[in-house]
């Protein structure tokens, strides 16, 4: 459904050249990093203020135009794709760090600010924002997806690190959720409701984030294991022992092969853990030794310590580029990315079953994981146009999700629902899905906000 | 409005003697620990299973009977009082610890289980549940109120420590929110929505809680300060310095006087901090020394270390009994208890302004605070029946709340809204109140769940 002329005129009058229906702009905002494909949106807008977002929403609401938020376009379940047409709202011009309140360990930012840009601004304060999904995503997008990543095991996810939001509702009203207080019992937790709602309940126009002290000492290392099972069992034992890991990442032999081929490493082609410790020098030393001893019990060998900040940066850059390196293992391929998260005690069995399933289907699916919180991914490589292969990859993904549900886990630990996980929502949540639908209908009765995403059985 | 005969018959048929309309049972469930007064409920029920709760809800829904959850009756804003009549659901017979999953650091409990009963069951596991509001409250009630208390500065509030819930909805449907995974991005965060909803959206019938490792070493101490301002500034400096306090509690001279009079202490009658450190022996030693040095800078003297577990238990028991000790300062009095929480940098000014305001109104209002997260309370003592005094106390409470809002804080850090904070909700939340109302109406269209509480402008 193209945008009604009256709506397009109102949007053009409001935004001038920052409203576009050109094919180039639309195509740029119709891309996806994963296997999902959809036609481009009907138009793109680049608001610069909350008030403009509110006016855009009011126009879209009046004319029933779907409104889809867009950050850096790095979501993996098509959250930012205009699957029902409509207007994509590119938030990247609202990218300012509004106020750093160092004494309260808080910052207010606009949604288009990326996590790396924020941390660059914070460098001199002794504080940092820890949530790190790998991609240099926008903070608004990270909140909308309830993103997490490598450091969540220590610092929590966006759920724990967003203190308050400013949100534009479906009809253009602007609200603030939460306060600057560290905690509150003053009514429904609307901040938590909007975090993870993937733009289906409102458009985030400002975020108040918790900051953390930059650790006095940081140590990072890579360590190899004879088998996948031993590596993952080492993770479970580490977490259960209470060693306060800042990062504990699993990579399998295929990922190591990708690193060796495309990132210039010369690692043994077997499963590895990548770990990091934060804290006072004495405790970092103690934690690293305790981990080393545990790793040894599970056959861990060949510790390679990144001793300089540059070496650590290179290490985590390599990890963050794993997605692209693994894509390069099969030129031309795209990926079906799984994202289950299970209770720690079920992690070894879940990873082993996934590996076996991928092998049995004859697929190539390198696995990585933020395994310290039970979350791991298979990046199943499929060739565009190969329907049989895509179907096989989706079968594996569905079985991984079903096994996760069976042990009390979740179908998505951090990537969100979008359209990819939507068919599995009822299997995970049962009748709670109808509560989600009731909330969606209460807050967006015309269903203009990212329609067709997240909540199943609602248009 | 009495309960319709058909509803009473259905409830009696379902529950037998566990449904009562006797004056004694009703009176017992019409009490409040604070100044709020309301007639007793029309009836009381003691369900023993989730299915019974579901059937009770269905009956109440069909007959539009208000349904109010009841735990230990220790809420401070009349959350459990039947202000519009109806049925009080006493959850204390659903008090079992259902499953301890030590390897996942989780436990499943029924809502009537108290935090002390849970920790007694956990003693042998090396794990504990940290949230500690003072009262030995039921865990269901703590979740419903989004309670926190003395340890929130280190371990978080109920928001951070409830992983999932089973909830009976207004019409008797039963849902599960959340999973056993450490994190999830699978849709709206219903767990966070029900935590803190004070029984207005559903009745909690099961909780999955996060557990923490019992600290290897614990150290606790009391330390006096020359002035209130210096004590509170020491707190702000401590938190900003990053010392990982397990507890940091402020008590003013009036509270010390209550302790000296009723708890047998012989402390100097001035402001004090009560602190606790958790961790490995070396880090506890280092943290305690770092705090000691900081306290010295702010005039802290007379450190009294509780070196044995018994001494520590006595110390925190005294703190937990502060409410009753302070009530005893004025025999026959009841209390208007304030509960603001402000950003750390505003804490010293907020505490000083409250003290001055109480003094100016000629009131006695001992102050305590979980000041490590910016939360403090004045327990303003009023004589029942003295309308002028009650009005003065409410004026002070309202001004404290308004000052908190003005600096980005909250009207309630942990006690919740109930009926006491309801008139201030719009001042804090603005139009976000209408989002709360929309959610309330979507999930409880007949408004049978704890009607008249929390959400203003909704019956």
Automatic annotation (TrEMBL), chains A, B:
What this protein needs as a cofactor is: FAD
Question: Which InterPro entries does this chain map to?
Answer: FAD-bd_oxidored_4_C, FAD-bd_PCMH, FAD-bd_PCMH-like_sf, FAD-bd_PCMH_sub2, FAD-linked_Oxase-like_C, Oxid_FAD_bind_N, Vanillyl_alc_oxidase_C-sub2
What general EC class does the enzyme of this chain belong to?
Answer: oxidoreductase
Recite the UniProt keywords alphabetically: FAD, Flavoprotein, Oxidoreductase, Transit peptide
Q: Does the keyword Transferase apply?
A: no
Family named by the database record? Belongs to the FAD-binding oxidoreductase/transferase type 4 family.
Protein name as it appears in the record: D-lactate dehydrogenase (cytochrome)
